[in-house]
Amino acid sequence: MKSKKFKVTFNAPVVLSIVGISFVATLLNYITGGASGKLLFMTYRSPLLSPLTWLRAFTHIFGHADWAHLVGNMSYLLLLGPMLEEKYGSRTLAVVVAITAVVTSLVNYIFFPSVALCGASGVVFAFILMSSFTSFKEGEIPLTFILVAVFFIGQQIIEGITVRDNISNVAHIVGGIVGGILGYGLNVRTKSDG
User: How far apart are CA 170 and CA 156, in angstroms?
Assistant: First the structure.
């Protein structure tokens, strides 16, 4: 009897790249005592003419406050990301990640000038809301989308008002809104193209 050989596949390059870069960024942050995180992997109010301000608008999603923060975000990305990358393609998912990163960075820059933001939580929430559109039919809004929006976004609003911690509930809310809008828009376009 011939035995089957199994091979490991690089099935979701965008998601796996985010995980790998985030691991390296978090490791560097520990090695440098937080200096690399502040320089490259955290967005905050800084001069608009500085190229690093604009670089950090994208790269802050790779920095994480600690290993628990990293593991929490990467678990969700690894759970939801491959399904979304298979459905929409690597290029589209990379654009979703970039848009989410920049929008959360701009909202933080404009409305919370004294807050530094790092982590992929906004991307996680974008993926959560996008995933509820995977079985979308034109002219319908999935009940799963409504429930996910109510539970996840509602929880973030309540925690943002009542809990004082270092978690950016606004990044979660903004990421969820971006994911919901893009998930809807991508599915409307896909249905009309097909």
Answer: 8
Instruction: Give per-residue pLDDT as tens, 183-192.
Output: 888 877 655 5
174: its two tokens: 């903004």
Model confidence, pTM: 0.84
Residue 182 contacts residue 172 (beta carbons within 8 Å)? no
Residue 1 inside a domain? The answer is no
Which of the 8 DSSP states describes residue 149?
A: I
Backbone angles phi and psi of 59, in degrees to 5: -80, -10
Q: Alpha-carbon distance 4 to 158, whole Å?
A: 51
Residues whose CB falls within 8 Å of the CB of residue 54, separated by 6 or more in sequence, listed in order: none
Count of other CB atoms within 10 angstroms of residue 85: 22
CATH of the domain at 186: 1.20.1540.10
pLDDT of residue 189: 64
Complete DSSP assignment for 106-123: HHHHHH-TT--B-SSHHH
Buried-exposed string 90-113: b where 16+ CB fall within 10 A, e elsewhere:
eebbbebbebbbbbbbebbbeeee
Domain that holds residue 170: 13-193
Number of structural domains the chain divides into: 1
**Tens-digit pLDDT profile for residues 105-136:** 999 899 888 889 999 999 998 998 888 777 66
